[in-house]
Amino acid sequence: MINKVISGADEAVADIKDGAVLMLGGFGLCGIPENSIAALLRSGVKGLTCISNNAGVDDFGIGLMLKTRQVRKMISSYVGENAEFERQLLSGELEVELLPQGTLAERIRAGGAGIPAFFTPAGVGTEVAEGKETRVFDGKTYLMEQWLKADFAIVKAWKGDTAGNLVFKGTARNFNPMMAAAGKITIAEVEELVPAGELDPNLVHVPGIYVQRIFQGKDYEKRIEQRTITK
């Protein structure tokens, strides 16, 4: 079985060049590839197109890459927690494509499944539909959306094995599995790395066939974006 383990985040992102298209897993600050983002900051790569549900916050996640002006374009669904994102958008410094969350998820899934386009009712009659084909099915108008693919998909899992099989924990699964399938090269960082064969095949969320590089991460902060408690 192929061993896909590499030394760490810096080696994982070393060949990501200026202008690359990246998918970064996570939802809010949950399940984001913290180590890989830190390595991208150190690499200084720029002109990136980042496909992610959101843009982190000002001092964490993709928000750090926005501060260093490494991101040229964001394709996202929700970005309301990032003041620097707002500033760059309003000043015209950052190109942004905002999508309904379900459309974003399905465009990524379609990219991984090899489906170039699909029709959805979401966005019909709004700015999202500008320049896109519409078609009527059973008396209802639908909007055609195209797949999303990336040069690199960067995901974070709870556990993985040396062959690249991945297991996620709880809601940290979010966009990670579908992104893993949609990247030409998929980089996985994991909290726990085990030998091939130790994971129960019935519990694997992403088969190793989709993963080209895997490494064990460290020092995860796992920040909570909005802490809500009961008294």
Automatic annotation (TrEMBL):
Pfam families: CoA_trans (PF01144)
Top-level taxon of origin: Bacteria
SMART domains: CoA_trans
Keywords per UniProt: Transferase
One Gene Ontology molecular-function label: CoA-transferase activity
Similarity comment: Belongs to the 3-oxoacid CoA-transferase subunit A family.
Name recorded for this polypeptide: 3-oxoacid CoA-transferase/3-oxoacid CoA-transferase subunit A
Species this protein is from: Flexibacter flexilis DSM 6793
